[in-house]
């Protein structure tokens, strides 16, 4: 974004500074702990570049970060921003401590940085892109007012997320109670490839230069960008002409199909996998996205839970040092427990009832996310 565009974005009475004039990298001089030094419990939390607030813990008091609290930590590889208000230690590689050089309220700065669009460069460093941005510096009283408004909106958003997390935890406990841990298989169920319960395919390589605008003569395409954790997002949607669908009917998505993003499938909120709902427009599957079509309707919830399990993550073995990707071979070779059809049917009925309430919560969360995004835009264009 050019300098002139940045100045046009902000109100004329706000000072606007290049990022490096407004914010400094205060990482240097702090101890950094390697992954093999992390503890599951300890007196000092470790903040690294992972999506979770804390990556682990330590008892090494001399490793506490010297930055004045509260402070902001940026994940150079992950693009994650964290607001930390208690003593912490830094995890090695990729975690940067950011401090203001000028009169900037840290909550205001945090909210501003969170809404920046930093394009992904894969498992590369992103601080170089952050340094190319600009930071607005309104009067301090205005900063505090904006931060307070965004804090309240963010609290509502997080409470909705916590409610959804509680429901998800309940669903996982039901699964473990009925079937046991898929990794250890304490109930001794037979294991079979997931292809014995569902037809599994990956999408077609639709050429992006042949995408068209949305119209009655086009169909929607489902890409990895549209597939989130438990729900679809169609804000950035591609369309394909209906007159070019010959021999592509096998890639049509139907209600009840389980859709899985194959590239960067794990994000902060979990695995990017969804069940395609009813009453949707005609939608086709794009490459690097998988479709699992259960052989029976009652298999849907069971297969969906198996894909979300730690057993599936362990099978695919993503790491923070590689670009996570699920291959078609990995997906098709994933083994699931094979309980009786009666037990799967019982599980399906229980989960279907819970999902009705969960669906309402997810819709509310989506609305709160949209409202927060709109509020942030207004805040940083001087409209609050």
Automatic annotation (TrEMBL):
GO terms for molecular function: DNA binding; endonuclease activity; hydrolase activity. The keyword Nuclease applies. One of its GO terms (biological process) is DNA restriction-modification system. Signal peptide: none annotated. Keywords: DNA-binding, Endonuclease, Hydrolase, Nuclease, Restriction system. Pfam families: Methylase_S (PF01420). Residues 29-164 form the Type I restriction modification DNA specificity domain. Its EC number is 3.1.21.-. Belongs to the type-I restriction system S methylase family. This is Restriction endonuclease subunit S. It comes from Pseudidiomarina terrestris.
